[in-house]
Design goal:
By secondary structure, this protein is an alpha/beta fold. It contains 7 helices and 32 strands. The chain folds into 2 domains: 3-142, Spore Coat Polysaccharide Biosynthesis Protein SpsA, Chain A (Alpha-Beta Complex), CATH 3.90.550; 157-347, UDP N-Acetylglucosamine Acyltransferase, domain 1. The termini are far apart.
């Protein structure tokens, strides 16, 4: 290995809030893998933990990149989703050269001296020789909702990237129905209960290690159920959905990404949405993903707090980590919900919910930090995860910078 990989962020960062309030861009999940995992695997370094230039409150939660002596440094902008062609171009970069798209840095091979400068001031393409290239639109991420829009194609891509073998043991799950098993990929320890239907005639289905598909549930491909996750009895999982590691999901779900440790355990509909870690949707929570007049969806810009037209017809909810809804909750089309919020009401909450909010209908009050941490700690203990001091400090920094 002649180089080490450093992930960076650019001025599109806030377009991915609230998801990126608690994680770097490279930790966003689309398909089966995170963006960082895709890049490391395609560059032959999948046994390496992703590392990057971390924002202040993330430094002790995620790995901060440190140069290795004698190795060149590859700076990677993870907003650009890799493919074999781009990966080859990146591997072939000579020292102090870069690849750009419309003037935006994709990747650069730089010396420790330039790395030191960029770490402080951000990347400057004037420091390197640049080759301009064209990247297909579906391999560039500019906004949070593009995660679910790209999800189906990325499930297919990740299955190839992981070099998975399709399910062949026909008697392993004799009482389940597997349609087009050549496009169904089931990892070791997974369980498919009697009466479950895996329908892969429109795209592949990935079932991760120790995942469980309960009786009478239906999963349509392309979809992914990642390690240690559960699809509840009678669930309807439609195309282009990813259920990240250690999640429990039931009801009706269509084109949704759950990052990890999140639950939608009961009936209710979620569509065209992205949920972070440790979210919990109460029974009969429903997300609207299409306006009654079939118009384009407006969302609130996280930076300006002003509404703008996305030009998209289908956007449900983008929800930050540790946010929760009560039973019978309704989430409006284009809802942006911050980190650590509690939404409980039979009325629509605002379409923009700042972090650490306690919301009943249109009424918003601050969620007291110690109470939020107490609930957070209890939820994490249920999954045998300790709320570490750096994680608590990250949350406190977000609380202090919130609108309240």
């Amino acid at each position: 290995m002649k180089y080490t990989i450093c992930f960076s962020e650019d001025n599109f960062l806030e377009n991915f809030h609230p998801l990126t309030l608690t994680r770097p861009v490279y930790d966003l999940r689309v398909g089966i893998l995170t963006l960082g995992q895709k890049w490391l695997r395609i560059l032959g370094q999948h046994d390496t933990e992703p590392a990057g230039i971390q924002r202040g409150h993330l430094k002790d939660v995620f790995k901060t990149f440190s140069p290795s002596e004698g190795k060149q440094i590859l700076w990677i902008n993870p907003r650009f989703i890799p493919d074999d062609s781009l990966a080859l171009n990146v591997k072939n970069l000579t020292l102090n050269s870069a690849i750009t798209c419309d003037g935006t840095l994709i990747a650069a091979n730089i010396s420790p001296k330039i790395h030191e400068k960029w770490s402080l001031d951000g990347p400057d393409t004037a420091d390197v020789g640049c080759d301009e290239t064209d990247i297909p639109e579906n391999r560039i991420l500019n906004n949070s909702w593009e995660l679910f829009q790209r999800n189906g194609e990325q499930i297919k891509f990740d299955i190839e990237l992981l070099q998975l073998e399709p399910h062949t043991a026909g008697d392993r799950f004799p009482h389940a129905t597997l349609i087009n098993p050549g496009q169904i990929y089931i990892e070791e320890g997974a369980k498919i209960e009697p009466g479950a239907l895996l329908l892969a005639d429109s795209g592949p289905i990935y079932i991760g290690k120790r995942a469980r598909i309960m009786a009478q549930s239906v999963v349509r491909g392309p979809s992914a159920v990642c390690n240690d996750s559960v699809v509840k009895m009678g669930a309807k999982i439609y195309e282009e959905t990813t259920i990240g590691p250690v999640c429990k999901v039931g009801g009706e779900v269509s084109n949704v990404i759950f990052h990890s440790y999140s639950n939608k355990g009961h009936d209710g509909y979620a569509g065209n949405s992205v949920f972070g870690q440790w979210c919990n949707l109460g029974a009969d929570t429903n997300t609207s993903n299409l306006k009654n007049n079939y118009g384009t969806v407006k969302v609130f810009d996280w930076k300006t707090k002003k509404e703008f037209d996305t030009g998209q017809q289908f956007i449900g909810t983008i929800m930050g980590d540790h946010s929760k809804t009560g039973i019978n909750s309704m989430l409006n089309t284009g809802t942006m919900c911050g980190v650590c919020c509690n939404l409980f009401s039979d009325k629509y909450p605002p379409k923009f919910v700042p972090s650490f909010s306690w919301v009943s209908g249109q009424d918003i009050v601050p969620y007291h930090f110690e109470k939020a941490i107490e609930a957070m700690e209890k939820m994490m203990q249920r999954r045998h995860v300790q709320l570490a001091v750096p994680y608590r400090n990250m949350m406190q920094a977000l609380f202090q910078s919130s609108n309240f």
